[in-house]
Amino acid sequence: MEIVFSTVSSRGLSALVNIGRMRPVLLKTGKTCIGALLLTALLGLLPGSQLFAESLPTVRVAVLQFGTVNWEMDVIRQHHLDEKYHFSLDVTPVAGKNASAVALQSGAVDLIYSDWVWVNRQRFNHRMFGFSPVSAATGGVYAQPQSTVSSVKDMQGARLGVAGGSVDKSWLLLQAYSQQVLGKDLLEVVEPVFAAPPLLNQLMYDGKLPLSLNFWHYGARLEARGFKPVISVDEMIRGLGVKHQVPMLGWVFAESWRQQHSELLGNFLKASREARNILLTSDAEWLRIRDLTRAEDEQIFTALKKGYRAGVQLQFGTDELNALEDLYAFMLREGGAELTGGADKLDRSLFWVANPEVGVKQVATGEGP
Question: Bridge-partner residues for 130, per DSSP?
Answer without folding.
Answer: 253
